[in-house]
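Open question from group meeting: does this chain pack into something compact, or does most of it stay loose? Before anyone orders reagents, we agreed to write out a predicted structure and look at it together. Recording both the input and the output here so the notebook holds the full record.
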Amino acid sequence: MDGFVRVRKTHVRRISVLWTSSVAYECMEQKRHMRDLRILVFPCGSEIGLELHRSLCFAKEIQLYGAGSIPDHGRFVYDHYIGDVPYVTEPRFSAAINKIIADHGIDYVIPAHDSAVYRLAQMQDCGAIGCCVVTSTFETCRILRSKRQTMEWFSHDVRTPELYDDIHAVPNFPAFLKPDVGQGSRGTAIARSKDEAQFYLAGNPDLLVMEYLPGDEYTVDCYTNKVGDLIFAGCRRRCRISNGISVNAVPVDDSRIKNIVSTINCLLEISGMWFCQFKESCDGRPVLMEAAPRIAGTAGLHRSLGVNLALMNIYELEGYDVAAMPNTFGIEMDRALCSRFKLTVSYRHVYVDLDDCLVINRNVHTALVAFLYQCVNDGVQLHLITRHQDAVQPLIDQMRLSGLFDSLIHLRHGEKKSDYVRHRESIFIDDSFSERADVHTACKIPVFAPDAVECLIR
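Structure tokens returned:
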């Protein structure tokens, strides 16, 4: 088996899986405060890195740092961002990541890409990294990094795809071709004939030739605690996939997959957050495609149900007992491109209109309110400037916006808003083009329509 020996564990792991339960997830906190932590995510701009940010950014004890090798979306999301980190394949990566850990006092590093998982686990295994790496043992990471080794490791106990030595051994086409080491759908292909298979293999002779599985695809988000108990295994159907990423998912309860995941947990030394993927064969049986000792990018589905796998992992590493108790309401997750912006705009005052801007059709513009509270956090002063026909305060009270503004400017008929913008370092938000044009021309400050507020939100 390519240089590794398959050894079963000598102890029996207890399996106590909570697939669905009542009440929300709780970290079973002891009567003590967790210490303040600095956590580094690398590479932070991957889909995994972005999910880790969503999982940990609201934890009061955690200060998040993100690092990346290329300038990607991570630099828009992480307040503490470190760029130009060498790739994990470069010899200077070890010194660079250790310098970041030392310079910023990092307590944990969470790898957010399969190659980073492998390299950082390897460094931890030989004592070459200055803090704890949040993943399983290096031996587990090594096995799961290879699709061939993963299939060979589990093939005696778990249904895995048939693996063919060459295309001549394929009994029926189509066949599925994929790299031994990779992630997502990069480099994969469906060969519908022997000629197509030869074409793909000519481009990459190292592709694995596998049984084609035509059925539904599933991911199981899992958590195994420090004593080996599988305390959470949440299955979700991958209803729509884009570039190998599940962009639409719904939770499912499948006892067949539950039993397979329990077996996987017994056969490998896994700890903390991990996931595995299945696809149904022609006869409808779930077949293990792969597993990985990290969080999945779409784990936010189960996080929304109350199971924050990343935070559980940190709590347990800090000595807390953790449990997973998900909500049972129906949920569907759909993902699309998300926009973040960096502006070269400096302001200490915000002037904002009321009618058809802050309040539209008797509803509060929630994104605008989010921005205004961001300003409150930043110490930016807020000024409500309006031509509202009636008294303003009753509407402000009705919309529960009382106390938000530092000043309220109620214009009389014919007065210009530009005459009341009295701070140079300001921005102006209004639904009216003519009002924006007047303020922009007279006051020489940036102006925004209600639909442009998204670019102001960090």
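Observations to bring back to the group:
The chain has three domains: 27-148+215-334, 162-211, 349-456.
The longest strand covers residues 230-242.
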